[in-house]
Design goal:
Distance between the termini: 59 Å
Radius of gyration: 21 Å
Number of helices: 15
Shape: globular
Helix content: 55-70%
Mean pLDDT: 93
Strand order of the largest sheet: 1-3-2
Strand content: under 5%
Largest sheet: 3 strands, mixed
Oligomer: single chain
Order of helices and strands: HHHHHEEEHHHHHHHHHH
Low-confidence stretches: none
Structural class: mainly alpha
Length: about 325
């Protein structure tokens, strides 16, 4: 049964798909594609979002974080990178990740009223051999019979200094903390416990990267690099699907603007229109709501975070509506 159906897929790809495939990228190449992408942008992010304003937001955020990186590294970035570079074995990286878990667990108390039990913290495991991502998180089941797991891909060429930002995003107070709190604190039906709205989920992960007082210059450098990457995604996604960028133009843009060389990610942007927009749009929404909240309640950052966790993970437009009902 399996072989028969896989064979059908292969025949389709060889005889029907391949002879007619387009060499152009993006939805905009198809009739009505630009308007369809405009709809995708709204459904993935929020009603007020357009390809044009997200492209401009990407340029603004990219310039901001590039300037911060220049200020950090000084005139000679190569010398700075040589100074901060840390070559460690997979075993040493795993030990660092476990040490960071303890540090970030204590860090939660600076930003939230509630913490998880120590037994509810994620496990860290090497990613399966076929994995393409540097790191990702897989949540626990409803009853915590299977624990949430942070997977790290040791086959990827990544710097030791990246581990802090990855841990903040995937673990505490990022994906693991948010999802565990959603399961634990809310009396919700099962189908809502794992409701995924990418702009909330990934926006929260990116926002969580800022919830730490970076002391080490190497770790701060890579935190800025990840901000540059997420800002660039706004430009690349809209560039491909709305402005008709070629693959070569995407590669040229990445070479010029992103120190983290991730050409393979271009395939992801082509294949999943709009998903790459969710990180920055979600983060910007949380930052906007945070600033509004702290104007009304100065110094109440823990209250703000608890409110966001209580409400989420909602589509951003609904999140904003419910947020205003709660605090105004």
């Amino acid at each position: 049964y399996y072989v028969k159906n896989i064979n059908k897929i292969l025949i389709f790809l060889i005889s029907e798909y391949y002879p007619h495939y387009s060499k152009k990228l993006g939805i905009c190449q198809y009739p009505g594609g630009k308007e369809y992408y405009r709809t995708i942008v709204k459904s993935r992010t929020m009603d007020c979002a357009t390809p044009e304003n997200l492209f401009e937001l990407g340029k603004f955020e990219l310039k901001k974080y590039q300037n911060l990186r220049k200020k950090l590294v000084g005139k000679n970035e190569k010398a700075f990178l040589k100074k901060i570079k840390k070559d460690y074995t997979s075993e040493q990286k795993m030990k660092k990740l476990n040490d960071l878990t303890d540090i970030l667990y204590k860090n939660i108390d600076n930003y939230f009223h509630k913490n998880l039990k120590r037994s509810e913290i994620y496990k860290i495991k090497p990613a399966p051999p076929e994995t393409n991502s540097t790191a990702y998180y897989y949540p626990s089941d409803y009853n915590r019979e299977k624990e949430g797991t942070f997977y790290i891909n040791f086959k990827k060429d990544f710097d030791f200094n990246e581990l802090l930002t990855l841990s903040l995003h995937e673990g505490l107070p990022g994906h693991h903390y948010q999802m565990e709190r959603s399961i634990k604190d809310k009396n919700l039906p099962d189908y809502l416990k794992y409701f995924d709205n990418d702009s909330y989920i990934e926006g929260w992960g990116l926002y969580s990267e800022s919830l730490f007082d970076y002391k080490d210059k190497g770790e701060y450098y890579y935190a800025l690099n990840y901000q540059i990457l997420r800002s660039s995604r706004l430009i690349l996604d809209t560039g491909i699907h709305y402005y008709g960028w070629t693959y070569d133009k995407c590669v040229e843009f990445i070479k010029k603007n992103i120190s983290l060389t991730k050409y393979n990610e271009i395939i992801r942007y082509i294949s999943i229109p709009g998903q790459a927009l969710t990180y920055k749009v979600g983060e910007q929404t949380f930052l906007f709501l945070r600033d509004e909240y702290l104007k009304a309640y100065p110094g109440k950052i823990k209250d703000f975070h608890e409110l966001i966790i209580e409400l989420g993970p909602l589509p951003l437009d609904i999140l904003i509506q419910e947020f205003k009902k709660k605090y105004i």
